[in-house]
Amino acid sequence: MSEHNIRIGWIGCGRMGTAMAKRLVVAGNDVTVTNRTRAKAEVLGELGATVVDSPHDLADCDIVFIMVSANADLIEVTSGPDGVLSNPDHAPRIVVDCSTVSSDTSASVREACTARGTKFLAAPVSGNPKVVASGQLTLAVSGTSDAFEEVRPFFNQLGKGVTYVGEGEVARLVKICHNMMLGIVTQAMAEITVLAERGGIKRSAWLEFLNNSVMGSTFTRYKSPAFVNLDFKPTFTPTLLRKDFDLGMSAAYKLDVPMPVSALCTEIVKSAIGAGYLDEDFAVLLLEAARGAGLKLESENIDVDDGLSGVQ
Fold first, then answer.
1. Can you state the angle between helices 238-255 and 260-274, rounded to 10 degrees?
2. How many CA atoms, within 13 angstroms, populate the side-chain half-sphere of residue 304?
3. pLDDT score for 5
4. Three-state DSSP class for 251?
5. Alpha carbons 299 and 203: distance in angstroms, whole number
6. ∠ at Cα 74 (73, 76), nearest 5°?
7. DSSP assignment letter at 36
8. d(CA 6, CA 157)
């Protein structure tokens, strides 16, 4: 079947889901969307998507993508009373879950899909709505290789990089490892930025040098505006980061992998939460590093390139 004739369903129109689904709609695909609060889906309807009332109405789509908030939500929209698998006469050929959920939940949904003859791909993502809009989203995907190959053209429309990592739920571990790396890099970046400022170097100058060096990265550049201007509008909170560190350390224990740096960073993140940083961006690790040094930071209030503006 030509990809142009494939009917795509989309479940979940939060900030991230809307940004991702928008890319598929704008690319000219036949996309039908649903969301618990229908008004949020109507934004995509204005761009050309068809809006329906529930996941049940997507049962005759070929491929259904899901982007929801939690384990219980994923179970509800798949095997719940109005889930995409609830229609006795039809079920999608492939269900693709891009949410961040546990491996156990993912395996349970895979089993429910298999019982209906539906293939299931776990496809957690790295990015946020601005990253999606810039075309820089990346995905790790696990499941059967034939299902992956069928969905690959649409993965490529969602972002710049998609990696097939194997069978089963291994993509979930990839996402946990990724998020642990986010925390460790941010903590290192915070400590060293505080050292530079204590030595009389402006944060903006240090970070400009870092980002132009071989040690700079898309991530360090993206976090630089928050570090320079102390803008902690959340993209990922310390509470969510702590959850992923806990999952990662649990996996390390089961797999007998020593992780001393990760263990220390887990405690630092817990300390930041204990200090009251619950809903801010996890870049507030900078403030905790400064507090430990007895240093009060002030916003520099300057424009800083995040490396994403204008990227498509």
1. 150
2. 25
3. 85
4. helix
5. 10
6. 65
7. S
8. 14
Contact by Cβ (8 Å): 238, 272: yes
Q: Is 35 helix (H, G, I), strand (E, B) or coil?
A: coil
- Cβ-count burial of 182 within 10 angstroms (0-12 exposed, 13-18 middle, 19+ buried)? middle
Supply 41's token pair: 């889906």
What Rg do the C-alpha atoms of the chain give, in angstroms? 21
Work out the end-to-end distance of the chain between its first and last CA atoms, rounded to an integer number of angstroms.
29
Sorted by where each begins, the domain ranges of the chain are 3-168, 173-292
Count helices and strands (H / E) in the chain: 12, 9
Q: How many CB atoms are located within 10 Å of the residue 111 CB?
A: 11
User: Cβ–Cβ contacts within 10 Å for residue 149, how many?
Assistant: 10
Give the DSSP letter string of 193-234. HHHHHHTT--HHHHHHHHHHSTT--HHHHHHHHHHHHT----
Q: What is the pLDDT along the chain (312 residues), one digit of tens a residue?
A: 446 689 999 999 999 999 999 999 999 999 999 999 999 999 999 999 999 999 999 999 999 999 998 899 999 999 999 999 999 999 999 999 999 898 999 999 999 999 999 999 999 999 989 899 999 999 999 999 999 999 999 999 999 999 999 999 999 999 999 999 999 999 999 999 999 999 999 999 999 999 999 999 999 999 999 999 999 999 899 999 999 999 999 999 999 999 999 999 999 999 999 999 999 999 999 999 999 999 999 999 999 999 887 555
User: What secondary structure, in 3-state letters, does 67-109 show?
Assistant: CCCCHHHHHHHHHCCCCCCCCCCCCCCEEEECCCCCHHHHHHH
According to CATH, the topology of domain 3-168 is Rossmann fold (3.40.50)
Local structure of 184: helix, strand or coil: helix
CATH class belonging to 173-292: mainly alpha
